[in-house]
Amino acid sequence: MKAGTRARAAAPIAVILFFHVLCGESAWAGLDNPPPLEFLGIQFNHATVIHSALAAVAVYLLVCLLTINLSRERPRRGQVVIEMLVDMLLGLVKQTIGPTRGPKFLPFIGTLFLFVWAGNMLSLFPVESHHFGGEFFHDYNRNGLYDPGEPFIDMNGDGVHNPGFQLPRLEEPTTDLTFPVTLAVIFVVVLGHGSGIRFRGLFEYLKEYFSPGGIMGIGMFPLNVVGKLSELVSISFRIFGNIFGGAIIMSVVSGLVFSFLLPIGMYGYFSVFCGTIQAFVFTMLAATYISMEAAEEAENKGDADQ
Amino acid sequence: MGLANAAALLGAGLAMGLGALGSGFGIGYAAGGALRALARQPIKQPLIFRTMLVGQAITETPAIFALVVAFLLYFASAETLDAPWSLAQSAAFLGAGLCIGVGAIGSGIGSGLVAHDALDAMSGNPSSQGPVLMFMLIGQAWVQTGCIFALVISLFLLASGNSAGLSGPEDFRLWSLIPLAGPETVATARHLAAGLAMGFGAIGSSLGIAYAGGMACRSLAAMPGSDARIKTVYFVGSATAQSPSVFSLIISLILVLNA
User: Fold this and answer.
1) Are B123 and A213 in contact (CB under 8 A)?
2) Are A80 and A93 in contact (CB under 8 A)?
3) Residue A29: pLDDT above 90?
4) Nearest-by-Cβ selection for A298 from B57, B79, B228
5) Please, which residues have CB within 8 angstroms of residue A113's CB and are 6 or more apart in sequence?
6) Which band of pLDDT confidence, cut at 50, 70 and 90, is reported for residue B62?
7) Does residue A239 belong to any structural domain of this protein?
8) Which residues have CB under 8 Å from A217's CB, separation 6+?
9) Contact B54/A277, CB-based, under 8 Å?
10) pTM of this prediction?
C-alpha cells in the first residue's frame, strides 16, 4: 500500500475514533448501554451513528484494498471484482437516467449502493451490541418511560425481562428508520428534485405539481405533494421493514432454537441474500426517482435512433 | 383488564394470517412463471432460476412487513397485561393488525404477478434480460407501495395504542360495551376506520400497478430498444394508478392523527 493510500485510509479511522471518544465508552464492545447523544435537542441513536460510520469505513477500506496495483494487461482478482461492480452500476444509471446524464450520477449511486450494502452486511459480525431494533425495543421500560438501563425484552409474555432474546451481532444501521430516511432525503429530494430544477427550470418543475392543469390543477396540488412525499415514505420504509423483519426473524429463531445450523442458513438468506437485494432495490429506486425528475427527452432520442 | 391484551393478540394473528395470504400466492405464481419460461428456454436455466429467486425474495416483502407488525403487537400485548379497560386502545391494536394484514394481500399477489410476467417475457426474448429485470424490480417495488402505506398506518396505530391506554375503567363493566357518544367511542371508531381505510385501499392499486408492470415487461421484450418510450408511459401510468391508495393514506392519516 502506498503512502498516499495509507494516509487516505487513516482519515475515516480517525473519524471512528472521534465518535468513540464522543460516546465516552466503547459502544460496540458491549460494555454498557450508553445514553443517546443529544445535539441541538435531537437525540441520536448510538448504534445507528457508529454502525453507519463503521459501514462507511468498511466500504472505503474495501475499495482501497481492491484498487491497489491496477493493471491493464494483467488485472488481479480484486480489480476484476471492482470493474464488474462499476460496469453494473454504470449500466444501471445509463439505463435509468440516460446515456449522457447518467454517468454524472454514477459516483453518488455507486457510493449509495456500497454504503447500504455494507451496512446490511454488518449483522454477519458476531460482536456484542446491546442495541437491537432501534427505538422500538430499547431504552423504554414497561410504562413507556425512557430508561437507559437494560432494555426490556419479553419473549414469553410473562412480564419478565428475557435477555436470551439478544444476540451477539452488530446491528445493521438500516434497522433504525433514521438511516434510510436520511439517505432518501439526500438522494430523492436533494439530488432528484435539485437536478429537476436545474435541468428543467424552476417554473417547469413547479408546473408539475399542478399536473392536469387548468381549474383542476389547484385542487390537485395537495394530492401531488402527498404523491411526491409518498416516494420518500415508500423508498425508506421498504428497506427498513425488510431488514428489521429479517433481524426479528433471525433473532427469534436463534433465541428459540438452540442450534447452529438453522441460524446459519437464515443469516445466509435474510442477511446476505435479502440484504444485497434490498440494497440494490434501494439504489435502483433512488436512480429511478432521480430519472423521473432529470430524465432526458425520450421522444427525440427514440426518433433519432430510427 | 385484558381487553387491550386480547385485542393486540387478535391483531397479531390477523396481521400474520391475512398478510401471508398474498405473498404465499405470489411466490408460487412466480415459480410457476419460471417453470413455464424453462419449457421455452431450457438452456437459460441459470438465468431463469436467478431471476425467480430475486423476484420471490422481493415478493416476500409484504409478509415480512406483516410479521414485523405481528411481533410488535405481540410485544405490546405483553405490556398491556394490567392496562385499564380501554376500547380505543384495543381498537388501535386491532386496527393495526387489520391494516397491514389486508393491505399486504394485494401487494403480495401483485408482486408475484409482475415476477411471473417478467419471467414469461424473458423467455420470449432472452436478449432483453437486463432491461426486463430492471422493469421487474421497479414494478415490484411500486406494487409494494400500498403495502408500505399500510405499514406506516399500522405503526401510527401502534404508537397511538401504546400511548392512549390510560383511560377507562379498571375492570370489566357491562356498560363499557355499550357504544356511548363520547371521546372514547369516537377514538375507537377512528382507529378502526383508519386501519380499514388503508388496508382495503391498498389492494386495488397494488393489483392494478402489477398489471401495468407485467405488461411493461412483456412489451419491452416484444420491442427491445424502445424502453425510453415504454418507460414514460409506464411511470406516469403507475403513478396515476397509485393515487387511489394515496387518497386512502390521506384519509387514514387524518383519522389517526386526530384520534
Assistant:
1) no
2) no
3) no
4) B228
5) A89, A279, A280, A282, A283
6) very high
7) yes
8) A210, A211
9) yes
10) 0.80
Range name among A44-53, A202-211, A251-260, B148-157 with the lowest pLDDT average? A251-260
Single-letter amino acid, residue A136 = F
Give yes or no for A229 touching B (CB within 8 A).
no
Q: At what angle do helices B227-258 and B145-163 cross, to 10 degrees?
A: 20
Q: How many domains does chain A have?
A: 1
Q: Is A280 on the interface with B (CB under 8 A)?
A: yes
Given a contact cutoff of 8 angstroms between Cβ atoms, the answer to whether A243 and A174 are in contact is: yes
Crossing angle of the two packed helices B45-59 and A274-294, in degrees rounded to 10: 80
Q: How many CB atoms lie within 10 A of CB A219?
A: 10
Half-sphere exposure for A221 (CA within 13 Å, toward CB): 8
Minimum distance, in Å, between the CA of residue B79 and any CA atom of chain A: 6
Q: Does A136 touch chain B (CB under 8 A)?
A: yes
CA distance B68 to B90: 19
Q: Which of A230, A235, A237 is nearest to A287 (CA)?
A: A235
Q: Which residue of B has its CA nearest to A269?
A: B57
The answer to whether position A51 is within a domain reads no
Cell of B97: 393488525
Average pLDDT of chain B is 87
Distance CA A217, CA A117 (A): 41
CA dist A258 to A108, A157, A164, A264, Å?
43, 20, 11, 12
pLDDT in tens, B20-37: 999 999 999 999 999 999
On whether residue A116 sits in a domain, the answer given is yes
Residue among B138, B148, B250 minimizing CB distance to A226: B250
Q: Hey, are the CB atoms on B243 and A95 less than 8 Å from each other?
A: no
d(CA B101, CA B161): 17
Best interface-test mutation with A: which of B74, B133, B145, B156 has the largest number of A CBs within 10 A? Answer: B145
Domain of A258 in residue numbering reads as 86-305
| pLDDT over 70 (residue A268) | yes
Which one, of B35, B34, B63, B36, lies nearest residue B51 by Cα? Answer: B34
Return the closest-CA partner of residue B114 out of B86, B92, B142, B93. B142
Q: What is the pLDDT of residues A67-84, one digit of tens each?
A: 887 888 888 888 888 899
Nearest to A114 by CA among A35, A32, A161, A55: A55
Residue A74 covered by a domain:
no
Task: For residue B67, give the nearest of A154, A230, A248 by CB distance.
Answer: A248
CB contacts < 8 Å between A and B, how many?
104
The three cell numbers of residue A23 are: 460516546
Task: Find the mean pLDDT for residues B210-222.
Answer: 93
CATH number of B3-171+180-258: 1.20.120.610
CA atoms within 13 Å, Cβ hemisphere of A156: 7
